[in-house]
Write a structure and sequence with these properties.
It is a single chain. The protein has about 325 residues and is an alpha/beta fold. About 35% of the residues lie in helices and about 20% in strands. The strands form three sheets. It has a seven-stranded parallel beta sheet, with helices on both faces. A three-stranded antiparallel beta sheet has the order 5-4-6. Strands 9-11 form a two-stranded antiparallel ribbon. A hairpin with a 4-residue loop joins β4 and β5. The radius of gyration is 18 Å and the shape is globular.
Length: about 325
Amino acid sequence: MVSKKVVCLGGGIGTANLLAGIKNKFTDVTAIVSMADDGGSAGRLRRYYKTFPPGDVINCMIALSQKNELMKDLLRFRFSGNRYGPDNILPGQKLGNLILVALTTIKGDFSKGLFEMQKIFNTKGRIFPSTAVPISIWAKTSTGHIVTREENIDRGIFKGQIKKLFIKPKNPPVLGAVLEELKKADVIIAGPGDLYTTILPVIMVPQIRNEIEKSKAQKIFVVNVANKRYETPKYFLSDFANAIEKHCHNIMFDMFILNNNFSFEIPQKHQKDYKYVPIDEQLGNNPYKVTYGDLVNRDFPLYHDSLKLANTIVSNI
């Protein structure tokens, strides 16, 4: 067990996989989760109850929970039906999301409800919303089009390629506890996860960006195993770094971690939308270190293997 404080930035399956691997490697783990999600069943709850999006938070809670598998299965359980159905019906909803909405209502505050839920499910580490209000994202594309909402960006409902992402409000408030977590961090990790719909909506928040820039912690960016056709088509590692610099005015991270095992075939039904992130032949003189490793999950090669990724992080700090 490494005696360091690690703060992870992002949300969704990528961050959950990271947390599942590092929670038994470090003495102190915190997740700071994007509040930009507005798609699927979580988006329906956000709109209907005018609350924070619970989905990514619940993924992280499942990863950090020390309860038995049956309790985790309760959080995962999804009622049969369409995730993208009407906002005011139960089918397609996930039970964990509903519990968090209920606790938010009982406590009168999302952060207080989240705190209580972490106690109930005995998380090994802490989870915070990245912003004290829900935020929205929108983007300009290479064709000059404007695409609004996280769900439309995530599902590729736009023309061209994403060139610039924006958050609304531009400078959302951030909980003091989130800033304290970043100040105390020994290691800050962003990614893996969708670059434009999960990672940038956290690290672009001005107060969070400023804390990352000022921090003396080791700052690591985990590049996705696979490019998503809608968001990062044909991206190299350098394209991820350039996107961070473009949106945050600074690359900020001193190490980028990238998978270099392409031997497992991406499942056929996903091959149209996902391709392995290739290795840059010429990275040139960059202000960051690049660490390569066999990080892929052999059973589902779109994602990292949690343990492989955790071991690589431990060996490089």
